[in-house]
Amino acid sequence: MEWFNDLESTQVTAFLVTWGMKLFWALVIFVIGMRLVKWVAGLAEKGLTRAQVEPTAVMFLRKVAYVALLVLLALTSLSILGVPMTSAFALLGAAGLAVGLALKDSLSNIASGVMLVTLKPFKVGDVVTINGETGKVESISIFQTRLRGPDNNTIVLPNSLITTDSIINLTPDVMRRVEIVIGIGYGDDIDEARRIALDLMNGDKRVLAEPAPDVLVYGLGDNSVNLGIRCHVGNADYFVTKCELTEWIKKGFDRAGVSIPFPQRDVHMYHHVDGQVIEGAPLPAAVQERLAAPQDPAAGA
Hints:
Radius of gyration: 38 Å
Helix content: 40-55%
Structural class: alpha+beta
Strand order of the largest sheet: 4-3-2-1-5
Order of helices and strands: HHHHEEEEHEEHEEHEEHH
Oligomer: single chain
């Protein structure tokens, strides 16, 4: 039995030495590979930056390259240990499926982030309206986009919500059109109202000469003639100019006697007295006393 024990001890020692060497070289390759992966990812980032690719795209592509190289390094280390690549790929696919099902919403945000970076419907600094929210784009990350609202509030939108909704980019150019719709009375002079509005717009230095300001009749409403007062200004002057022009036009119309109608309702009171309908007649004294007397809750019950 001694020769059998010696043989078993020799096999165990050889097995441990073989696997120990494999594990040693796998760890050495993994450690060296980690530094190499970081170096390649940094090199890719520098190349993309020199190519003047947007910072968001640079960050995303760097992470993608880093993860892909890391997976390749892990598979290489497993192959050194003697793990069959077929089994490794099967295990990786199963793990990827499980992670994908668990993080489907996050992966949807990532895919949407790739679309935003690739298609570029807007960039950092643009003023956009998305899902009813308007603000200036501060950052575009992989999972979410951050806006700065008009009240200096922070608006965070998931990327998946952005790509499934309409995107209105309000700053594709250096200027924006100011449009103010104001209704005037049917008995007022349209030409006079047009002259007042044009004089105010032409006298404002922020209003651009081209395209020229104009005043059009948008339609005939139920209570007013609706005028479309339009001009173009720089992006930075849009909000303040629109507010101030609205105020100035209202004051100008008031001075010129141009009315701005508003909905009104006339209420007529009718009283039935001895079978006769009398409009505006006072109620009988007995009825007035009864209405003025305090009501007894117990009597009503």
